[in-house]
Fold each of these.
Amino acid sequence: MAETESSPEQVYALVTGMIQEDLLYLLALNLYRLAFESRKDTQVIFSYVLRFRPATASPKSDPLALSYVINNRPEVLVELCNGYEHKESATAAGTVLREVLKSDAAAAIILYDDPVEGGPPSKGLSGIQPDVKQSGKGVFWKFFAWIDQGSFEVGADAFTTFRV
């Protein structure tokens, strides 16, 4: 079967459909459960989707899916970080994270993530309070354990992401 080029409208429909169906969160949450080749494919999907800008968007605006994740579904970022909990998903999650962390807003969400018991998994940008002392239970603090106590591959990838 011959491959055909996709139109910008088709790509836009695919990206918005992935957002509407919460597929980015589900992929991040279940990344470690996927087979090796599927994890690699998921990594590529994340990369394309999180960089996609509609033709009508301003070049200075965040890509569509990245903006959605930052403003509406920061749990995607937290789950990508939690990919380091599983050796199988560490490299794929880390690669996606390093791309996402080029956004200051995404980096801030991870830095200031401090879950409240019984509350939402992540409060996102609206919940960032830089002046409030953190509990040390947020995803940022887990990087120290992943770097120090994980396997060499997990630790090395977590350290590379931490440096970003």
Amino acid sequence: MADYSRDEILDKVSKKESLERADLRDVALDRANLEGVNLRRADLEGVNMEECILKNANLSSANLRDAYLVRANLEGANMQKADLEGANLEGANLQGADLSRANLEGASLEGAKLNGARLNYAQMELANLGGASLEGVQLANADMRDAYLGGAKLSKANLQNAQMEKANLEEADLTGAILTETNLRGAYSEGANFTNAVLEGVIFEGAALGKAKFADADLRHSNFRDAKLAGVTMTGAKMYGVLAKEDQWDDIIVDWADFTEKGDGKDNTKGTDFVSRFKQMLNGNGQSVSVSTMAPAANEQGKRFFGKGDVLRNATLEFGEKSIVEIESRFENCSITLGEDAKLTIGPNGELKGCQIVGAGEIMIHGRFVGERREEEEGPSIIGPKILFVGKDGFVLGSIQQPKQMTNFGFEKGCKLSLKIYKAE
């Protein structure tokens, strides 16, 4: 039984008394005026609060699972860590509300107004935000996997590092939005508008992007592998370091694009040269690394040094037996083959991301090695080394396939490891 009746609740609100931790599960509060009320940690599971006025209310950590909040006014409300799983918030006003770390899994926010709301780290898996207004909303690090955002207005929204795998963004407006390092793998985003959006490092792998607009968008280092790009607009897009297959650009609209590392537009490429310029970059023949850094020193035949500040992407490198290779650069999505007894050192400034190292060499890691290759298609990130040594400041995230004679490991105290080790086949 509820702690208070509807009339008692309204009386307390009029006197500005707190309802913190109150059990109100069986009370009908539709169309009630609860502006500014303190309902922190209150139990409102399944409560009917249709068109309820909760402007500037404190609902932090409250239980609102399956609550009925259709067209409720929650403008400016504090809903941090609130549990709204399965709640119905269709047409609700949540402008300026704070829903940081709130649970909205499976909730319906169709047509809701969330302009300027804060939803950082919110759990929104399978949520329905169709046609919702989310202009300027903060959604950094939010979990929006399988969420529906068809026709949603997300201009200038911050979706940095959000998980949006298999989300539906059909016809959504993301003009000027920030999606740095966001995961949109397998997302259905046909007709979405990403004009002027910041999309650095976004994973679009396997996404459906037909007729999407990327005009003037920053796409540097993003991954479009296996994405469907028919009819996509790319005019003015920043393309440096983009990962894709060259035949994926056969049916795009592009007058010109920017392939410069800094995206400063100082060396724009005409649309007619887009594919050839992309192919050049894909083969590591663009601006990735200067030729001088790859040449052996005058009196050190077989030694290769990649200096600090250089970047190499999507390249295939082979080093002969007893070669000495030192990397202080950043390598991305590269394939490295080491000959017998070759020595590869990743220095303190070196970083290998998404790379694969194969061969019977010695590997010394004092920098960072992050193997993000898909094992089912390309195998472990390190295959067949005689020695793997990780220094005290080294960081390794990946997997290793040992040779038949087994790998000799050395790990200094202080190093950081997440390494899956496979025995020799």
Amino acid sequence: MKELIEVIAKSLVKKPDQVNVTATVNNNVTTYEIRVAPEDMGKIIGRQGRIAKALRMVVKAAATRENKKVMVEIL
């Protein structure tokens, strides 16, 4: 799952080497935190949050196939 998020995030930004994804597990919910360069923040979020919503939707769909609960946060 982490690799999926990294591939998507790196394809969206101008500085893919600064993309960092960390995972933490709390109460059976895995939270993935995405950190990017400050100038790439807009590219990850998108207009009115559309790209962020799409990214979350893809990750949740992949997690549902594995019967897992996930959250994606962009920091």
